[in-house]
Amino acid sequence: MADAVTYRATGKRKTSVARVVLTPGVGTVTINGREVDQYFGRKVLETIALMPFETTRTAGKFDVKANVYGGGISAQAGAVRHGIARALCEADESLRTPLKRAGFLTRDDRQVERKKAGFHKARKKPQFSKR
After folding, report:
1. 2-36: b (≥16 Cβ within 10 Å) or e
2. What are the residue ranges spanned by the domains of the chain?
């Protein structure tokens, strides 16, 4: 087992964090101990999470083990995508260019704006009354 190579990376989106471990294998994807299709439940989210493999044509070459927490299911899929992309860069530096062009190495930092005091929501003010 000493010769088994692992590539680790952390992916983030909104408040979700994914710790991803890539090992050379047959393409098994496990997220929080469950298969990817069981975990996400929707094909769209599964596709989003595994996009870096399609972009770099490395599908079926790596096994993925991911531990994801925080945020919603959609943000978790984005976090897994970010983590896989960063781990692939660690595995092979030549894959950096296509991943960068596809925008998978950029952390999507859009987050929910906090609610301000005296406001109904983050920006919704109380209705103005002249009298």
Report:
1. eeeeebebebbbbebbbbbbbeeeeeebbbeeeeb
2. 7-102
End-to-end CA distance of the chain: 77
pLDDT one-digit tens code per residue, 40-90: 989 999 999 999 999 999 988 999 999 999 999 999 999 999 999 999 999
CATH assignment of 7-102, among 3.40.50.300, 3.20.20.70, 3.30.230.10, 3.40.50.11740: 3.30.230.10
Q: Residue 96: is it exposed, middle or buried by C-beta count within 10 angstroms (0-12/13-18/19+)?
A: middle
Residue 65 has φ and ψ, to the nearest 5°, of: -120, 120
